[in-house]
Amino acid sequence: MQLRKLTTLALYTTLALAIYAVESAIPPLVPIPGIKPGLANIITLIVLRRYTLRETALVLTARILLSTLLFGQFISLLYSLAGGILSLAVMYLANRCLRGKLPFLTGAMGGLFHNVGQLLAARLLLQSAAVWAYLPFLGLGGILTGVFTGLCAYYTERLYGISRH
């Protein structure tokens, strides 16, 4: 990997981690556990639209590992990885199918499947199908926050003239 690209990806990771840190300090917006804006996903969407899946996965994984190390507990690593990996896979497919257009839709798919991934992890860890009762609430929350992060990614790219590398 070229030094310039590696440096840029490291900066994206740092930015995503900083956004995650700020978001962690904000009290929950709704009284349903697990629903949060997911603002660090703005960076994931930008990187996904500008770099390869492998490079985006590298930024996402580094951000999850570092955020867990600095702000979380080990159990949150499992939920974050499950949600993050499934979300990234779905966003990658959506972005390809949509040819890079409609990032708010790509974000909505990512938000929804992030929560599905977390519920899959919870189902495996807790050995209870009762976790699926949260799906309507988490799903709606994921879609709404995903639309928001998708729009933020789109307007951030336009505002700062972020181009493909």
The total strand number stands at 0
| Terminal Cα span | 12 Å
> Helical element count?
6
Morphology call = globular
Subunit arrangement of the protein: single chain
**Whole-number average pLDDT?**
94
Which blocks of ≥5 consecutive residues have pLDDT under 50? none
Query: Main beta sheet: strand number and arrangement?
Result: none
List keywords for this structure.
165 residues; mainly alpha; 6 helices; 76% helix
Describe this structure in words.
- The protein is an all-alpha fold.
- 76% of the residues lie in helices and 0% in strands.
- The protein is built from six helices and no strands.
- The protein has helices spanning 3-25, 41-50, 53-71, 74-97, 103-126, 135-160.
- Helix 2 packs across helix 4 (74-97) and helix 5 (103-126) runs antiparallel to helix 6 (135-160).
- The chain is globular and about 45 Å long.
Brief digest:
By secondary structure, the protein is mostly helical. It has six helices and no strands. The longest helix is centred in the last third of the chain and has 26 residues, at 135-160.
List the helices and strands and how they pair.
Layout: H1 3-25, H2 41-50, H3 53-71, H4 74-97, H5 103-126, H6 135-160
Helix pairs in contact: 1-2, 1-3, 2-4, 2-6, 3-4, 4-5, 5-6
